[in-house]
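Before relying on records like the one below, remember that each one covers exactly one chain. Contacts with other chains, cofactors or solvent are not represented anywhere in the record.
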Amino acid sequence: MNYRGLRILHAFLFIMFLCVEASAAEKPEPLKGLLVTGGCCHDYENQKRIITEGMSQRVHITWDIVHEGGTGRDHKISVYGDKGWAKKYDVIFHNECFGGVVDDDFVQAITAAHHDGVPAIFVHCSLHSYRNAAVAADSWRELIGVTSQSHEKKRAVKAVTVNAEHPVMKGFPNEWPTPNGELYKIERVWPNCIPLAQAWGEDTEKDHTVIWLNTFGRARVFGTSLGHHNETMNNDVWLNLVAKGLLWSVDRLQPNGEPMAGYEGSGIKPIVIGEKQAAVPVPDPRFTASTR
């Protein structure tokens, strides 16, 4: 190669280097999420994998995980006692089941952190957590957007879309029969809650909200009561939905239901969990299924 050719090659490589550097500089830092999980009646060991891996495949996010409490109902998650515990995160993902906690100050410290503006995701039994706190239970429910204290018998749940135009519901079926299910009875929909889907309760003979959005103070909140069983969570329909809900909560969701540029995940692939671990856990024998 002659001198002129070398100069052209060097110029081309230099331009390519600048393009790569510019692209790297433009890509935003990943979102930082905290998953809080543990408690009775669910396979949290596998669910924390399903949630964090499934979200990261769809959203540019990294995770811290707090998994505590064994199978009890009255454990108080340690991180909630840390000063400013939520401020270093872009979103808190609640998948805990501690219905026996009665400490009002403890629960109010959680809701206050969200009220100040930290977004939240609520899944399944998080709705039933802290319900025995005499004063703070209603603050927890207002944060979530719905009130539920019990569920119907375990059976597949057919989620029916009621707000198909919302970006969170883009790509969600008009009707989705879940692989397995446990319908939560919704006793109250709070004023700032926007229902997105509902399901008919065979036991109660009425519809119950199963997917929704909420605002609480300065925080955006996404919630779904769907997700008792691993086969429901480890499903593209569920994971796509919750990923969109997460992106909406942090204001990174486009009107077409796609992530804003730079917030795309690593790419969808199967999440394989062990056959033995994946089995549906046996509920805590001290409590009936309908009052967990």
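The first strand starts at residue 31 and ends at 39.
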